[in-house]
Amino acid sequence: MSSRTQNFLVPIISIILGLIFGAIVMAVSGYSPVDGYIALWNGIFGSSYNFGETVRTIIPYVFAGLAVAFAFRTGLFNIGVEGQLIMGWFAAAYVGFAFELPMIIHLPLAILAAALVGALWAFIPGILKARLGVHEVIVTIMMNYIALRSINPLIAAVTDGAERTPKVHESASLRSDFLQSITDYSRMHWGFIIAIIGVIVMWFILEKTTRGYELKAVGFNKNASEYAGMNVKKNIVLSMVISGAFAGLAGAMEALGTFNNIAAMSSLPGIGFDGIAVALLGANQPVGVFFAAILFGSLKNGGINMPNEAGVPNEIVSIVIALIILFAASGYVIRLVLDRMGKSKKEVK
Amino acid sequence: MSFLDVLYFIIPSAIFYAAPIIMTAIGGVFTERSGVVNIGLEGIMIVGAASSIIFNLTFVDMFGTLTPWVGLIVAMAFGMLMASILAVAAVSFRADQTVSGVAINMLGLAAAVFIVKLIYDKGQTDSISQRFSRFDVPFLSDIPFIGPLFFEDAYATTFVAFAVVFIAWFVLYKTPFGLRIRAVGEHPMAADTMGINVAKTRYIAVLISGALGGIGGAIFAQAIAGNFSASTISGQGFMALAAMIFGKWHPLGAFGAALFFGLAQSLSVVGNAIPYVRDIPPVILAILPYALTIIALAGFIGKANAPKASGVPYIKGKR
């Protein structure tokens, strides 16, 4: 079996295994897996409202996945998407309600602010990695908690002590009456177009620009890139910054589309961690990320329907996603099994 | 409030908040020393917290005042169960250790809340009736200054945590087994050549971290929180990870760092009552542990070096 087919098969097998184990967990817990998965399906496609909500769940997943995947291509593990997303969310919400501008300026400005702040939040681990060789995983985790612990005071500071910011002005909102009317007043918004643009932008940077080539080269082999005359340190910082910008955009989608504001948080939103799953399953390719985001976003939103329709706690979806990551990360074993199966077939012939 | 009163007030509270972090951080020292990065400590703590609370609520009639202690053992078992998933993925299946750790966190939280909803039909358990309680250590609490600081109104779990730190230091630095763990984490191929079973050693180290992380979560749940919900453990596992790094992968260092983080946590909770501290914005205290960890990593507080093979799966025969 060629490694190309294997690269394609490993995620598919991981998804199937994850769903099977999910069914086993449901069965052991005394729930009906069939009812559970039917409820999941209905939660995704069952009504135009559910479908609209599914789309709006997918949007930030695309950006979170792109953020993790982009850094990964340069050999960096950005676990800090969570924190960058929170800060971007805040920036977009703040620009959205604090200024009054015509839409053609206001909306791009709010989106740009989120990208910038997300990038800034990722710049710190980037520069520490490049200059001092500090491992980015730990720094980004710490930056997540710094973001979480400072977001509530920040919200309070800009709203005179309130727990949520006012709604963003119409001129900065991605919501549309048209999209809401065709999806039975779901929170679906125009962000899905921006997400598709994001996918194209990442593909373009990585595949069509010299800079993208350098970023990938650094990811493949730092020493070789250095020897070839590339500035490794600069590329590391740049990769983190672009990754952070994507993460900030994920926050902007929540701020300008889904919620139209930011409210006090007691724990991390989790989209950034799910972004790791998205990137891993999408093999860090822009198009792969896009499809993986569709899968995980659908699962996540469909899961909300499971307690109502089948009485299954919607945490089952997170269990399935976690298992899919574990299986996909253990791809070595799946490849090994595939190889064995391929060989035994040949022997039969 | 005099300086001494402030000390009597703040030190016991700092130790109280530090105990779960100490436990979990020591667990982290074991895995990382053996060359396995354990980002999953948070998930392990969550499972430990949930299992101990569920056990406590269910079996409180059977064990009476001993319930929280038996709860620790139950949490230890479930922590090891979670850790064994990580061990299989990271050691045997050569999975990316950071990714599997993230998956463990996700799985731990989801499984814990799933089971709580399954049993209680709601996302949050009732409060337990048998918590770890405070007591005065006989004789020692009569010692002037030190007595009120450490031995009056103390939690027994605190002393367990202290004991674990000492045992961990002894095991890692004074026994052949500890030497093996450190060898496997620094240079697995050399260790393998000398006849040490790398995979087995790493398995044991990961399981130890699961046991200690589970206990850490159970201490937090049964001494501080009193019930379990999705947000009971929010960041303590990562703080333990930070304490381990801040403590330079050494049990005593991790202990000191955990105490310091406990101080920061307790100051952000009780700081309002203390002069000067009152004037510091609470947000500064809340982000202090995390910011300090970054500063420590950046090398401003001495150079911190991770075990060399940390995060790298060992593949026999590969150079």
CATH level 3 topology of the largest domain in chain A = ABC transporter involved in vitamin B12 uptake, BtuC
| SS-based class of chain B | mainly alpha
Give the SSE order of chain B as H and E letters: HHHHEHEHHHHHHH
Say how many strands of chain B there are.
2
Shape of chain A: globular
Tell me which oligomeric state these chains represent: heterodimer
Question: In terms of topology, how is this protein built?
Answer:
The complex is a heterodimer of chains A (about 350) and B (about 325).
Chain A: H1 3-28, H2 33-45, H3 48-73, H4 81-98, H5 103-132, H6 136-158, H7 177-182, H8 191-208, H9 210-220, H10 222-227, H11 232-258, H12 271-281, H13 286-303, H14 306-310, H15 315-329, H16 331-348
Chain B: H1 3-33, H2 41-63, H3 67-92, H4 97-120, E1 134-135, H5 146-151, E2 154-155, H6 156-174, H7 176-186, H8 188-193, H9 198-225, H10 236-246, H11 251-270, H12 282-297
Helix pairs in contact in B: 1-6, 1-9, 1-10, 1-11, 2-3, 2-4, 2-9, 2-10, 3-4, 3-9, 6-7, 7-9, 10-11, 10-12, 11-12
Notable traits:
heterodimer, A: 349 residues, mainly alpha, ABC transporter involved in vitamin B12 uptake, BtuC, 2 domains, 78% helix, 0% strand, B: 319 residues, two-stranded antiparallel sheet, 12 helices, 69% helix
